[in-house]
Amino acid sequence: MPGIPKLSLVEGGFEELSQELATYLDTLRGEGSNVASEIAPLLAEPEQEEGESKKTDKDAVLKKLVTASSALNSAPERELQAAYNLLIHLIGQAADPDRYLPPVCRCLTNPITSSPQNGTGIALGILGTLFNTLQPDDETRFHVLLAIVELLKRTGNYEHIRPQLKNLDAWLKEWEMDPNQERQLFRSLSEAASTGGEPEESYMYLLKAVRTLQEEASSPQARDLSLNALKTALQSEKHFDFQDLTSLDSIQALRKSDETWSELLELFVDQTYEDLEDFKDGKGSFITDQGLNEDVLDKKMRLLTLATLAAQASETRTISYSHIAKALRIPAEDVEMWVIDCIRCGLVEGKLSQQREEFLVHRSTHRTFGEKQWREIASRLETWRASLTNVLVV
Fold first, then answer.
1. Which GO cellular component does the record give, naming just one (predicted)?
2. Distance CA 380, CA 375 (A)
């Protein structure tokens, strides 16, 4: 058979097109393939008398075609999209198309051996068309989206799907996915964002995956995902607020299963650089054994310690260079550099005074916000109210 040259617009009945696709699959699969002969008895014959007519067993035919469809990935590039379009067209005539589309999506995530350079683009085009032709509430869209994400993860082209992900929550609500399916999609998105150079978005989807496991917070899967999220947060040079982790049941469960990891997290929640040094002295090579970058952890903890110093200086609003140098365990001449880095990270705002060797704090970030911080706010509001009262009296 010379191929399937023009199938963007599909014409013909189910029986005729099924036989044509089966013959094409036999050609691709080579000697020993007999898909065409296997489906022949399942197809209605075109010229039968009314009393002798039989119906085509579409489900049995499609099962054989879909099972053999992995061979389409070896089809010539100019025929590949047309062949897949034909298969999808035939599946659309089934009583339950959702039964056959997920395996086809999985096939499209496999390498296109006949076109290593353009194969991914062709597969994305087929999947994109399929996604857009399905009804918005059709849960098969989930499998198509998962296949698209898998392809983007392999190529590192996460930016191609990012604009559409603003609809993700609405899609999942329409599809009524169970937690396992949502978790599978979130993990794939996290990996795709990571390979695409978007660590913050990767962490966001990883956290969403962890949240799907809160009803089984002590399970091995919840532990593994939670540790992965914790490592990612610790290693991220832009992540400084760890309350998104400490609020999760699966993270709290680490206090029993992984006490050392829980202790390390608590350090970054509200402790100082000195406490981190004590942790490293007491735990030996734990940090390096777990594949964590010690330099990244040291830098992050120094910045967090400086933020804590600024938050504690609520009355004087100033911190001396010597106090900063001692708390961060750095040379005095490096203080200004660390303060500037802390300002760039958005943890503090203020003004350096080289003459007085002080840092004047304009704004500071509280690493934890609990009863003590609420009392501080109440105290400031009370002072403000008293000042306004005095102004009114005057």
1. eukaryotic translation initiation factor 3 complex
2. 9
Give 95-102's long-range contacts (Cβ < 8 A, gap of 24+): 95/58, 95/59, 96/59, 97/140, 98/138, 98/139, 98/140, 99/59, 100/62, 100/63, 100/66, 101/130, 101/140, 101/143, 101/144, 102/140, 102/143
Distance in angstroms (rounded) separating the CA atoms of residues 306 and 300: 10
* Domains of the chain listed by start with CATH number: 1-44+55-164+171-195 (no CATH), 245-292 (no CATH), 306-393 (1.10.10.10)
Residue whose C-alpha is closest to residue 77's, from 23, 128, 124, 118: 118
C-alpha closest to that of 246 among 237, 229, 19: 229
> Per this entry, what is the length of the chain?
394
Closest CA to 139 of 172, 183, 91: 172
Q: Which residues pair with 348 in a beta bridge?
A: 364
Coil, strand or helix: which one is 349? strand
pLDDT in tens, 209-239: 999 987 888 888 889 999 999 999 999 888 8
* Digit-coded pLDDT (tens) for 292-317: 999 999 999 999 999 999 988 877 78
* Integer Cα distance of 245 and 72 in angstroms: 45
Q: Which ranges in 140-236 belong to alpha helices (H)?
A: 140-155, 168-175, 179-195, 199-211, 220-235
End-to-end CA, the chain? 99
∠ CA 227-233-238, rounded to 5°: 170
Distant-in-sequence, close-in-space partners of 326: CB < 8 Å, separation ≥ 6: none
**Structural tokens at position 378:** 């109440």
- Backbone φ/ψ region at 80: left (φ over 0), alpha (ψ -120 to 50), beta: alpha
CA angle 320-324-330, nearest 5°? 135
Sheet order of strands, 358-364 included: 318-320, 358-364, 348-353
- Best CA proximity match to 34, nearest among 67, 10, 3: 67
